[in-house]
Amino acid sequence: MNKTFHFLILFFVIGISSAQQISDSLLTIDRIYNSSEFKGDRQAPIFWIENGDAFVTIEQNEAENDELIRYESKNYQKSVYLSAEKLDLNGNALSIEDFSLSPDGSKVLLFTNSSRVWRSNTKGDYWVYDFDNQTLKQLGKDFTASSLMFAKFSEDNRFVAYVQDFNIYKEDFKTGAITQLTQDGTGAIINGTFDWAYEEEFGMRDGFSWSPQGDQIAFWQLDAAEIGTFYMMDNTDSVYSQPIPLQYPKAGYDPSSAKVGLIDTKTAKTTWISIPGDPVQHYLPAMQWVNDDLLLIQQLNRKQNELNIFTYIPSTSTLKKIYTEKEDTWVDLRYPDIASNQWGNNDFLLVDDNTSLLRMTENDGWRHVYKIDLKSGEKTVLTPGDYDVAAYYATDSKNLYFAASPENATQRYLYSVPLSGKGKLSRITPSAFSGVNTYNISPNGKFAIHDHSDANTPSTTRLISLPQHKTIHILVDNEQLKEKLATLALPETSFFTVTTSEGITMDGRMTEPLDFDKTKKYPVLFHVYGEPWGVVATDTWVGLYEIFMAQQGFVVINIDNRGTPSLKGSDWRKSIYQKVGVLNTRDQALAAKKVLETYDFLDKERVNVWGWSGGGSMTQNLLFRYPEIYQTGVAVAGVANQLFYDNIYQERYMGLPSEDKDKFVEGSPATYAKNLEGNLLLIHGTGDDNVHYQNMEYLVNELIKNNKQFDMMAYPNRSHGIYEGQNTTRHLYTLITQYFLKHNGLN
Length: 747
Hints:
Blueprint (H helix, E strand, L loop, with lengths): L2 H22 L4 H5 L12 E4 L4 E7 L5 E7 L5 E5 L5 E2 L2 E2 L4 E4 L5 E11 L2 E11 L4 E4 L9 E6 L5 E6 L2 E6 L5 E3 L8 E3 L4 H7 L5 E3 L5 E8 L5 E6 L7 E6 L9 E8 L5 E3 L9 E10 L2 E8 L4 E8 L4 E9 L22 E3 L4 E6 L6 E6 L5 E3 L7 E7 L3 E6 L8 E6 L7 E2 L8 E6 L5 E8 L2 E9 L4 E7 L2 H8 L6 E7 L5 E7 L10 E7 L15 H8 L3 E6 L9 H5 L8 H16 L3 E11 L1 H12 L6 E5 L10 H8 L2 H11 L11 E7 L8 H12 L5 E5 L12 H15 L5
Parallel strand pairs: 40-41, 40-42, 42-43, 43-44, 44-45
Antiparallel strand pairs: 1-2, 2-3, 3-4, 5-6, 7-8, 8-9, 9-10, 11-12, 12-13, 13-14, 15-17, 16-17, 17-20, 18-19, 20-21, 22-23, 23-24, 24-25, 26-27, 27-28, 28-29, 30-31, 31-32, 32-33, 34-35, 35-36, 36-37, 38-39, 39-41
């Protein structure tokens, strides 16, 4: 045979093999969003038992049926807590979505068949497995399927209470007798749960709790009768359009009135707690039992710049204000932070045999933890120093565990301080875990579930002992994902700081293209958020999409401006007050300008920006206000007019429209739509109950009025996350990617 022919065949085969290797080393949209090739693992939720000496979690057996598994904390010794065989329903295995234990551990409450309420699946069916007689029983079985909420046992295990159709019910576990404890729930009157705004902005869903002895139930009642109804429109599920009503208080409009009451569980009589002030002009974002005759109640005024803490003694109907905290800007409840997994839990951590509470506040310029005596209101600072606490977790008998990062705001580590207020700050996280570390600490403070990640590494989850931080067992190593990532051509990620012409220094994260050559010019893609509920320039894994865009030839940059919850002091975070859309946008733009001047490899003619939600608003503002810097932007689900967003969020950071409406207008992107010069793609879900599609149409009208050309994509009936429906996520990211490739000459 001809040797030349042999050579050509060999060359062809080698070429195919080489091309295949190159292809395998690069990500595609399909590989990210249409396959499980890079699927990561995560630890299922755990439930600490025996004060933390053990925990229970959901796992699947060999038949892929759910069961509960118990682990000994000190040695990770495994045993079956509740087998799948005991959860058999006439040949069908019960699926476990969540669970809780009765106070004495004799029963386990199983949540299944759930349905969505706004963001979370909080309605569903509840089943109880009784370990004493080994029986499985459904609660509220005569109610509509998937309609019970927040079921929980009384302390004596005799009764279970739950919410159904805006009313609270009590069910005798032994007899099955059901007693309706509230009668007036209608949807306008809401008992035991919350309206859209309370859930979205305070994280409040479960709206009742048993007293320790079970003779009373404390609960919230909201009156949403005067809340305006916003209608979303479903145009696809029937021949005629269907309006979807939503109780949604816009900025400047009154919130639901709120009050708290105590139900006598024997007589079903309700006693209302007389909290001072207009119930429409304040919020009640937390209430908790201290003991059977003492409640803690938190009250925020309408402007959210004054927090009052009350004690209430049911036996004497005595209400006492023990603490007041005021800010010129706003008062936070639980602070948003990447180290906190406590969003929505507004209760205080109680210490010193429940005689004191812990409260994070930043009245002294830094965010510190204070111990507050429940009787006197006396404050003791536990974390003095010029640094911010990111989140606090738990205590052991003598120490408080909390997250902080005094030297680097992009990272988080575990620290401890004595509860006495006297002693030194001690770092617990070993130096080997550089990056972001988060913890779920056991009630006794002896063990924790530890998550670690850095910019180049997906999360690893460990069971550790404290305070030695000794690894007992690696729960999730994500080795399969890490091995797949190792087959890719991975870009390099680094961190930097940038100081603007106004002297503001910000943290940044940069991911460079493959085969990076600083003598060349690359398009830059700024990913932004920029509001008080999120940071982007963090030392956590950058994720597949950022890697993908760097592989496409972009330098991907994330920068955190003032107003974001960075650990840089109160002035940094609170400077955005009444300047949302103005100060944060200017910081981003001036930082981008400085970065473009500093790094010669960035192409000033190919500057791109994109973001979602608050980042969508930021993207719009940057294109409209600073067209000399940015050429192309993709804005997903952005607020175009601040007066269209909910009152709790927008008024917290902007004040009241009745007092300063001009500031809402000044911060809104739509005000400056007339200045658009570059390429803009607007994306929004028509079923977005959070940032309404109204924002999209309002901005579109402004652009049309000013004869500005742009692109837009509406996703029918999709919510704020734009993920519902077959192929949605893949389609969305294909759209975003192709838009940037097209306008940067990369396709």
